[in-house]
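Lay summary

Proteins are chains of building blocks that fold into shapes. Our project writes down both the chain and a compact code for its shape. Here are two examples, one after the other.
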Amino acid sequence: MQYYQPNDELTSPVLKMDVLRSVIENPYGRQVVINGIPDGVQDKPPSDSKGGGAAAFLLIFMFIGGIIGAAVFSQINPPLCISCIGAIFLVIGLVTAVQSKSGPVFLVALIGLLMTALPIVYVYGKSHPDSFQLTTTMIIKLILVLMILVGLGLMIFPHISHSKEMSRCSQVVNAKCIYRTFHTKSTNTHSTMRNTVGGRAHSITVYSPVWQYEVGGVIFVTCENIYTNFDVPEIGEIREIRFDPRMPSHIYRPMGGTRLIPTIIGLMFVVLSTITLFVMKNNI
């Protein structure tokens, strides 16, 4: 991992188009395409704005309904309170996964589905003694199985995504980093997440480089679609990146670190959950 201080005008939290245009190298006056749009042409409004509005309404409706339901059932039937919260995760996971077409996000929907279904089955069994009874041990085992599935997803999805991008972006080109946008990942209200190691505080910032490269006599200026603190290029550094020959504005820069961390976390989920299941089985 590399860390840089965002203290120059070519590294900012928001992409400044006027600054970006000023650093584009185009001595021969060739056509410039910035993030897939020819320079000077305004972006068209999204055609699926109605669909996006409906999805936003659904998310807001489910969130408010889920919170109200959780508050009500927390006093009447606590297990159903968990179902209400699970329904929120289920809808958010499904909507986000469909819109982003991201496999790992489906794991959120899977967690929400289990959180929704298990308490309902548990409550139904308590009110109907002759029906299927969901015991505490069974719930724990189902949760552990879910953790194994989540772990497998964390291990597999990043590599599947990598293989797809490598296949799609089949050609390589030398590109120059001319700009970097950044933001901070924080779990609190501070603008910067800080880790104290040996009495020293370190700010952790993630970056998205902007690359300039030329394909077929056209200058492309493209921002990476992910933020990372792995293998961050310096301004002016030239790297080899991959691009889609049918859509040169779609680029991919393979970075092993972005796949290593979820793989390790997923492996921990699988190993620890499997060991717990094995211990529970032997103690029964």
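And here is the second example, written the same way.
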Amino acid sequence: MLFVPVLVICSVQSLQLDSQASTRRPRVTKYSKTTAAPGGTTEPATERSLNTATYRLQAGDETCILLTVDALLDISYVTKLNERADANTFVPNNANVAGRCKEGDAETLVLSFKEFSLEFAFAKTPGGERWYVESIKLSYNSSARILEHAAKQGRRVTLTTDARSLLFPTPVGKSYSCPEETVIDLAEEDATANSGHRAKLYLRQMRLQAFMYKRDGEFGPVWHCSDSARARSEAAPVAVGAALAIATAGTLVGYAIWRYLKVKKVQYDTME
């Protein structure tokens, strides 16, 4: 009779182990807020499955812009009670991809989803050696469903990066790669700090390449974000040195002109 309880206990333990195995959570990404998941359901932003989405813009049979990323938008807005509120949403895997690409120095990638449009504008440096993101623009209607009790309903809102920003500079032919979280600030151009909308774009596990024109549609060699930071830090002293050299040259030229005019005046006075 002792075997029956033992068998029951073993069966219960087996069921518990099976249940634990079936409910084990997948590897997750970390964000600090709660957000709406793609498709409209709600999930904690701290427990989103670590899956990057792929967005590809093609020109004919060639891929000209390719982006893989795990992206989150955190929007801050003013409510009808004149209070600040936050709304969050992931950029979904099935966002509509559009844009413009040609064999030149300017391209755009536009990701559209729900009531939102996220646009990346790409450019090249004057010599054409590097490409970079010139601006990022987020557009939406203030009546968007996730913006609960937002003030000024029905208004078209456009948030952009700073006009002086130069994001992700990368040698042409290479792909920018940054597994760490990158945070991009977006704001309304003409709004005050208290009344306007603003947002943060969180980019994780990002790999990006523009001006590709590749039939195989594969990324070029990797250019790590640490390489970009190092290149900027190395370029800063060069830029400062170049500016000083130009200023010095300008001073010398100005002095030479002044001396020339002064001597001419003295000669003219002597002749009189």
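What can we say about the second shape? The mean pLDDT is 77.
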